């Protein structure tokens, strides 16, 4: 069945087959590099955005894939012509990265979704792992005690709507990555409460923030 999720999933699978991120696939096809980013798949009003037939035609031409091969990536379709191991992890396994590494460049696209190389993989229950784009961050150190301790794994859902009181991961444009509680967010600023009472609360101009993602699950 064709749906918003399955069409975008087929594009992601095509990118993975050619060892590209969605941004890399768009760039190879001569499109805006952000065309296929997960942050672009919903409009500001929450409406679904679909890839155009022109953009699909361009990526097929750029990769040499046929329409049959593209459609074979849809759920329920045969994948016999696809090399084993060329698709993203199946439901139950998600990308994993340490907090210390998350601040470095190359691990996320401009929407805060996992991208690039260097990710590990961790198995997790089906419910959080089946959400589109989720990934795991491993807590390192004691800056988040008593709520999260060294070695705990946080499941993060980029692109999800965040509300006051949500636990979130925030990355600044300076490369700082932190887990906080969202106290208040306006178009101009964001106020964050620290999980550890020994660490100060933080306030940033939104221009200083690269992305905010919601923590939806934690292993403790």
UniProtKB/TrEMBL annotation:
Residue ranges constituting the Peptidase S24/S26A/S26B/S26C domain according to the UniProt record: 95-216
Organism of provenance: Pseudorhizobium banfieldiae
PANTHER family cross-referenced by the UniProt entry: FELS-1 PROPHAGE TRANSCRIPTIONAL REGULATOR (PTHR40661:SF3), PTHR40661
Keywords, in A-Z order: DNA-binding, Hydrolase, Transcription, Transcription regulation
GO molecular function: DNA binding; hydrolase activity
E.C. designation(s): 3.4.-.-
Protein's UniProt name: Putative phage repressor protein probable autocatalytic cleavage (S24/S26 family peptidase)
């Amino acid at each position: 069945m064709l749906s918003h999720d399955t069409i975008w999933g087929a594009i992601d699978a095509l990118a993975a087959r050619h060892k590209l991120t969605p941004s890399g696939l768009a760039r190879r096809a001569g499109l805006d590099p952000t065309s296929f980013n997960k942050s672009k798949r919903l409009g500001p009003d929450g409406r679904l955005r679909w890839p155009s037939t022109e953009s699909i035609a361009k990526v097929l031409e750029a990769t040499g894939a046929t329409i049959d091969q593209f459609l074979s990536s849809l759920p329920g379709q045969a994948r016999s012509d696809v090399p084993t191991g060329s698709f993203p992890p199946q439901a139950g396994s998600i990308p994993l990265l340490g907090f210390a590494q998350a601040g470095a460049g190359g691990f996320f696209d401009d929407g805060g979704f996992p991208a690039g190389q260097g990710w590990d993989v961790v198995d997790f229950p089906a419910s959080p792992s089946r959400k589109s784009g989720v990934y795991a961050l491993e807590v390192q150190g004691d800056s988040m005690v008593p709520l999260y301790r060294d070695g705990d794994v946080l499941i993060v859902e980029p692109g999800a709507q965040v509300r006051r009181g949500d636990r979130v991961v925030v990355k600044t444009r300076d490369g700082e990555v932190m887990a906080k509680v969202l106290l208040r967010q306006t178009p101009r600023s964001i106020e964050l409460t620290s999980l550890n009472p020994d660490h100060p609360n933080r306030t940033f101009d939104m221009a200083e923030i690269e992305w905010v993602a919601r923590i939806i699950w934690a292993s403790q």
